[in-house]
Design goal:
The chain is α+β, with helices and mostly antiparallel strands. It is built from four helices and six strands; from the N terminus they run ααααββββββ. It is elongated, with a radius of gyration of 41 Å.
Length: 175
């Protein structure tokens, strides 16, 4: 190649026209806007789903904690009924069965200790104001010198299990 041809090629290379980008059209702008809107909607959906999952996980954790906290509730309710029967038997004490009831008293005390160590406490109701959250009124009676709505007799003991009513106290309330 001659020197001239080389110079011509160099000039042609340096004079190359820049590549023209396609002109932005109205259609491209709309498509871009649509894609951006879709992306924003998908991000919002994703955030909502993440929030729902966090709420679901929290609800499940709370539910499992409650199940563990009150797992023995049914068993303890049955033991409370057994205690009622022991109390009835122990109230029948006389000279003939005094020795026999000593064994009942020991069993009764053992059951009391078991339920107390499990978080069960007796609801104190006598001479307190009637509270439907803790008491179940089965009778009413007019009594002199006693205000209306006061528990005047406990017919069946009530119990709390931790912070929940295991069994309400059955009571007689003054009118």
């Amino acid at each position: 190649m001659s020197e001239e041809n080389k110079n011509i090629e160099k000039n042609n290379e340096t004079k190359k026209e820049p590549v023209k980008e396609p002109k932005k059209t109205h259609k491209n702008n709309k498509e871009l806007e649509n894609v951006r809107n879709e992306l924003a909607l998908e991000r919002e959906k994703s955030m909502r789903i993440q929030a729902e999952m966090m709420n679901f996980r929290k609800r499940k954790e709370d539910e499992v904690a409650n199940i563990r906290k009150y797992a023995n509730e049914d068993l303890l309710l049955q033991l409370v009924s057994v205690m009622d029967n022991f109390e009835r038997a122990l109230s029948l004490e006389n000279d003939e069965n005094k020795e026999f009831l000593k064994g009942f008293q020991m069993i009764y005390t053992s059951i009391q200790n078991i339920i107390a160590s499990s978080g069960v406490t007796e609801i104190d109701a006598l001479n307190h104001e009637f509270d439907p959250n803790y008491h179940q009124a089965v009778l009413t009676e007019k009594r002199d010198n006693v205000e209306s709505g006061i528990v005047i007799e406990v017919l069946q003991k009530g119990y709390m299990y931790k912070d929940k009513v295991l069994r309400p106290t059955m009571v007689k309330v003054s009118e």
